[in-house]
Amino acid sequence: MAANTGATQSAHPERPGRSDGVCSEFTVFTKIKPGHADSLREDLAKLADAADDKRVHAAVRQIGTLHDARHVIFDDDTRFMFASVFDGSWDTYIDDFAQTVVGDRFDQVFSHSEGFPGVKDPGAKDWFVAHQEPAGVFVSAYPDLTVQQIYKDQRVDEAFQQVLDTPEFREALDNPANAQLVATPAFQKLLEEASA
Q: Would you call 19 helix, strand, or coil by DSSP?
């Protein structure tokens, strides 16, 4: 399967950002309020510690559309970047995060950016759009997989690996009654992939 070079515009032309398959990118550049860089750095450190916080992971999993996210302070502590990859509608993505514990943490982090109205403010989307810059090229390693499909693939793999480790599975493979099924190319490919 060939990767998209990023030439596809978002399905939401009023929203900047590129898409590759089901994945879209979101990158925001802001000016840090004078004297706020150290406070922002402290809040980012708290956010990084919160990456282990079960509530944050639960919220991200519940939302189920975020592939990854990163926060960067740059230009001698004068500018801030937030970038993420997500599935689905840009508007839904912003709305979903605003309604979780993640939204509260975003409010804290972005409060150090000039003009940020707050993630629950009716003007928040306009503010994000005004500070968003689409990528020149955006390529996903798995453009056809949503976060939900990746979660499902992980659950299926874990369950299948457990089956492979049972004596009953080994007995089924060795049972002559199953020889025709076991010999099929599809079954052999399944075993090959499972052992990779």
A: strand
Q: What is the pLDDT of residues 177-189, one digit of tens each?
A: 999 999 999 999 9
Helix, strand, coil percent content, the chain, rounded in steps of 5: 50, 15, 35
User: What secondary structure, in 3-state letters, does 88-113 show?
Assistant: CCHHHHHHHHHCCHHHHHHHHHHCCE
- Map tokens 């994000």 to a residue: 128
User: Amino acid letter at 149?
Assistant: Q
CB atoms < 10 A from the CB of 120, how many? Answer: 13
- pTM score of the predicted model: 0.80
**Going by C-beta distance under 8 Å and a sequence separation of 6 or more, which residues neighbour residue 61?**
151
CB-based contact 10:17 (threshold 8 Å): yes
Dist. CA 7–CA 18, nearest whole Å: 8
Backbone angles phi, psi at 126, to 5 degrees: -60, -40
- What are 59's two structure tokens? 């919220």
pLDDT in tens, 64-123: 999 999 999 999 999 999 999 999 999 999 999 888 888 888 899 999 999 999 999 999
